[in-house]
């Protein structure tokens, strides 16, 4: 805008430049307000940006009314209409991507029997145009379903600013009915209305994609309670599609990897190979902690591995692309609603899979600090360091410290980290115990009596249901098998019942990266949690005006609004929130926890010492594990799963 103003109105630009001390941001803002004064319906991207800021902050209609009079924002009606305009684009890009995948997987033969990859008209031609619109080549931008340039162009030239008069308010009320999710047929019908376009299909397959969902829960109190107006406890479902960065088209999706008949339960148990791989990763993570917090190791900080390389490191270092799908007004925790949600996904996005659904651990930051502190305390015990700032002379050998060979330095660092891991994590002991457990379970006969699992109780039962009833009634002991069931089911699916294509996608396409780069990935669920928080900021600002229609409008435009705010904030130099909520004194917190661990000598053996809250706590975590019962439980689950489609 600044260059256009300087070219078309040089005198005004010079005047504003002098007044604002040549500040380009203030020049553009002042010019936008002045031009609105010249003509109240003159569109302004600046006004729509202010609208988004006000809506995000929960501003009321009165705020819009005052700022609109000053020419700073548009009216509230215009702001809502703009949201509706953006919401109408929700799902279009995904439906086109879906159509491109369907064409790629099921190409249609022409009259000659050959695959018609360059039709002149009809639905297939429209699908090819859809593929071009998505720009599925390697260099395609991956930011949002609607790019910033098109949004800015709409905001610059679309006249949406109307006077907030009673007559216009009445008219707008008649036009506020919300569109439901557009069906695939409706979108394709709209595509057919456009002129046919001949395109050449490239050999590059379109991106596959995943559908992820998360519950959107919040509490909305009312100011004046009545019979027909009470506090609202909202339980809706937020959906989003994410394009897969790791390709899967080269793998089969026709049949399972293995049959459940004769499935070896050892396949779902930790092996020595998996434990060895985990140990190597612990060593890398431990080396990061040592070089970050112990002064004695900080000279080797530049050789610490901050990204563990793997086969698809380059693919996963690219920025992710998502497609918002808005809200479904169903509660995923209710069986009937969950069925409706899955049916909706199957109908609207039939060749997509449901993404991983794991609740984000709200105590992640505390666990990270505690883990770092314990690892540091263990390392200081082994290396006889009394303080995190202690740097004993000759701690790092001269030939290592002064070496130009980075790999030599890294090997020495990892050897020290491995010493801590192998001494206190005891992975080998656990692996041996598990292997022994499986062998014993296969050799032992089922117990004829089931003992109560409450320590100190001598009751025994013949039937499992009787034992469970006793434990719940007299000991309030209710063991939830949900995690064990889900973990075992996932293991069986990955090792047997799912196709190679799905296994590959579930393994690698479950992460999100906003800006790209190695080591900058988070889980898809955490990304959706961030979008949920952003969406709640808009919804809570509606107050008593929150309805399913208004919530649908906002949720379907939220991705574009967020991208617009982020892009404009970058231009304004506004610091973007990282999404991490670490306190500034995290290092001090970790050092305090380390001091507590050292004072308590947690990693020194004291015969007879035990926690008062956990008397006679066995060092072996599997000491009370009933191997035979566990094996029988796994066999019973396998029998159940053989008769259902998985």
Question: Any key phrases for this structure?
Answer:
single chain; 646 residues; alpha+beta; 2 domains; four-stranded mixed β-sheet; two-stranded antiparallel sheet; 8 strands
Fold topology:
Blueprint: H1 2-8, H2 10-19, H3 24-38, H4 45-56, H5 61-69, H6 76-87, H7 92-105, H8 123-134, H9 148-157, H10 166-174, H11 184-192, E1 209-220, E2 232-243, H12 272-293, H13 313-316, E3 322-328, H14 335-348, E4 353-354, H15 364-382, H16 398-401, H17 406-424, H18 427-443, E5 450-451, E6 460-461, H19 464-475, H20 482-497, H21 500-508, E7 511-512, E8 522-523, H22 524-540, H23 548-572, H24 586-599, H25 627-642
Parallel strand pairs: 1-4
Antiparallel strand pairs: 1-2, 2-3, 5-6, 7-8
Helix pairs in contact: 1-2, 2-3, 6-23, 7-8, 12-15, 12-17, 12-18, 15-17, 15-24, 18-25, 22-23
